[in-house]
Structure formats: structure tokens, C-alpha cells
Amino acid sequence: MKDEFSFISSITPKQIHQPSLNVGIGDDAAIYSGSTQYDEVVCVDTMVEGVHFTKNTLSPYQIGKKALAVNLSDLAAMGAIPHYFLVSIAISPQWTEEELEAVYKGMNDLANKYQTDLIGGDTVSTKEGLVITVTVIGRVEARRRLLRSNAQIGDTVFLTGYVGGSAAGLALLLEYGRKADFSKEEEKLTLAHQEPQPQIEAGRILAQSNFRLSLNDVSDGVASEANEIAEASQVKLTIDPDKLPYHPFLNNGLVSKKLDFALYGGEDFQLIGTVASEHFEALKKKCSESDILLTSIGEVNEGEGSVYLKRADEQIKLLKKGYNHFSK
Ligand SMILES: Nc1ncnc2c1ncn2[C@@H]1O[C@H](COP(=O)(O)OP(=O)(O)O)[C@@H](O)[C@H]1O
Ligand SMILES: Cc1ncc(C[n+]2csc(CCOP(=O)(O)OP(=O)(O)O)c2C)c(N)n1
Ligand SMILES: [Mg+2]
Ligand SMILES: [Mg+2]
Ligand SMILES: [Mg+2]
User: Fold this and answer.
1) Contact 120, 75 (CB under 8 A)
2) Which residues bind Mg(2+) 2 (predicted)?
3) Which of 70, 74, 134, 216, when mutated, tests ligand 1's pocket best, judged by the most ligand atoms within 8 Å of its CB?
4) pLDDT value at position 251?
5) Residue 74, ligand 1, Cβ within 6 A
6) Where do you find CATH 3.30.1330.10 in the chain?
7) Which atom of ligand 1 sits closest to the CA of residue 228?
């Protein structure tokens, strides 16, 4: 990296999508206009080299794309439409300008898909590794809240899409590296890990349904996210393992691990939530009209913030285990 200022000018977008932006990159802070019909939604997530990725698991392009995707996923879990994002990047000498260009290309490609504008950030140096922090800003119809605390007794627990694929892909990448000669099926799994698709469209369908919904995105694994809903709503979630929508390429040697991958692997970035049982079929139909799979995986019962896995003749308590930064 030659110079911080020429780097910033090289990543400044040439074109802006959002008309509500007044001041973008170039001043002390960005300015955009809000709207009374919407609530503003904002969140931030960080990706750290060695923790969230290595040069062997993600390409520079995929690092950028995923850093934005995981944040869009949190907006999706609130039913929000993304508008803006800011990027803080700490760069070590091991990273070339060419690689950093690819990181921004990955972010920009996903940003363009959702008409989301880069409006600011920060660039610093670090001694080792790459750290990317993305903040996203979006909006959702005023007072439309898809909170983790909205689950009620009698609800159906649902998931969008497939789960378990990302953890299986990560296992392959950690063992063989991203340049290995993977089969077509293995490639689907590695891509599930490397290029997760934020469920913005599903979040929007859910937000516009007008049903009471609880919602969370699957970053740390189904067990952990289900526990977050159960705790926030002070209810018991019962999950049927036979109903989990496993990634279709979890075959062969991976079959025996698929339950573990889905429950504790994480990074599928699908949405898990609950809705009154009588509304589930209508929601599923609405989703299927947009080619989004919605699967019922269990039910909400009376209880105090816990999750159980349903077996033939017993229920097993699902601990909030999964990815946890400070317990290994
Ligand atoms: N260091 C921090 N300072 C303030 N708030 C934080 C911090 N870390 C996490 N949070 C907040 O705690 C909540 C849960 O965070 P997290 O588990 O990272 O959510 P998610 O899995 O959806 O990304 C969020 O509201 C987040 O903004
Ligand atoms: C090299 C490597 N090792 C391990 C993992 C697994 N991993 C790292 S972070 C994480 C969970 C998601 O990250 P977190 O920062 O907890 O996201 P949040 O819940 O805040 O959205 C997982 C499964 C990985 N992605 N890459
Ligand atoms: Mg987070
Ligand atoms: Mg989240
Ligand atoms: Mg997150």
C-alpha cells in the first residue's frame, strides 16, 4: 500500500444509487435524509483474518463480498431494505493493492445488486492480518418490528433456504484449501461458505406480510440462534431434526455430520423465525412465489427460554453452543 489517500480515492464509488444521500465520501461524515414513513435500521459486524477467514478459505474478492453479505444478513433479519454502508479496514503489509482492489470489487458487486452505496469508512494500518468492519444502514416500514422477542406459544418455527452447507464447505476448505480440485458437489458447499446470499428478499416478504413475526439470522448456527429467540421471548422452542432443510449436497461422507453442521456450524446466513401456526402456510406460499423455500422445523411451547430437539421418545436440550469467539 503506497498511500492512504490515493487508496481512498481509488475506492470512492463513481456512481451513487440512493437519492436521499446528500454528502458521501470526502467530508468528516456522511449526510443522508431520513423519512417519517420508515424506521432507520443500523448494524455492524467485523471479519478478522485467522478467525473469520484465511487466505486459504476465501479469495480477496470473496472476503469483501462476505463482509458486506453478513451485514446485509442482519438487516434482512430485521426485514429492512439496505441503503448505505461504511467500511473500516485495517491493512497489514502482507496485503497487496491488487488484493485490496479485489476485496472492494467483491463488496461493490454485492452493493450494486442491492443498490446500496458506500458512504464512508476508515483506513488504518496494522502489523498483521486484515480486519474489515462493515456498518450497514437500511430502513423498514415504521413500527414494523421482526424482533427476536416476538415469539409466542403456538407459533411455528421456520427456516428460509438450506442449512449446514457453509460448515461443510468450511471443513473442506480447512482440509484442502480453496485452490483444491473439488467436485461439482463439493464446490456448491465451499461456495455456500465463501459467498453466502443475504436473505434480503425473504426479509422483505416477511416484513410486508403484516403478521407478527420473530426473526434472527443464522450466523452462529441454528441451535444458538433458536436459543436467542427462546431467551428473548421467554418461551420453549422444540425443533424436529427430521424437518431441517439440509443443504442438498450434504451427501456421502458428510451425511453423518449434517445435523452437527446445521445446528452448530453456523454462517448459513438464512433466516430463522416464528409465526402463528395458522399463518405459516400463507407465508410459505408468498415466499415460494419468489422461489424462496420456507420450511417448518418445529413449534413454540410454554417454557423459559430454552430449545429442545425432538426425538422419537425423548426431548434433548439444545445448548446455545455453536460458534463462540471466547469459548473453544
Ligand atoms: N462491542 C459491542 N458494543 C456494543 N454492542 C454490541 C457489541 N457487540 C455486540 N453488540 C450488540 O449485541 C447484540 C448481539 O450481537 P451479535 O451476537 O454480534 O449479533 P448478530 O449475531 O446478529 O451479529 C447486537 O445488538 C449488537 O449490536
Ligand atoms: C478460518 C475460519 N475458521 C473458522 C470459521 C468459523 N467461524 C468464524 S466466525 C463464525 C460465526 C459467525 O461470526 P460472528 O462474528 O459470531 O458473527 P455474528 O454472530 O456477530 O453475526 C464462524 C462459524 C471461519 N469462518 N473461518
Ligand atoms: Mg454481530
Ligand atoms: Mg444477526
Ligand atoms: Mg451478524
Assistant:
1) no
2) 45, 74
3) 74
4) 85
5) yes
6) 4-141
7) 17
219 lines ligand 1 (CB under 6 A): yes
Tens digits of residue pLDDT in 54-95: 999 999 999 999 999 999 999 999 999 999 999 999 999 999
| Pocket of ligand 1 contains residue 225 by CB under 6 Å | no
Long-range CB pairs of 46-50 (<8 Å, 24+ gap) are 46/131, 46/132, 46/133, 46/134, 47/131, 47/132, 47/133, 48/129, 48/130, 48/131, 49/129, 49/130, 49/131, 50/129
Q: What is the identity of the amino acid at 85?
A: F
| CA separation for the pair 313, 315 (Å, rounded) | 7
Structure letter (DSSP) for residue 255: G
Instruction: Delimit the CATH 3.90.650.10 region(s) of the chain.
Output: 148-317
Pairing of strands 117-125, 213-217: unpaired
Residue 233 has φ and ψ, to the nearest 5°, of -100, -5
The interface pTM score, or ipTM, of the predicted complex is 0.96
Q: Which residues of the chain have pLDDT under 50?
A: none
CATH of domain 148-317: 3.90.650.10
Q: Per CATH, which fold does 4-141 belong to?
A: 60s Ribosomal Protein L30; Chain: A; (3.30.1330)
Which atom in ligand 2 lies closest to the alpha carbon of residue 45?
20
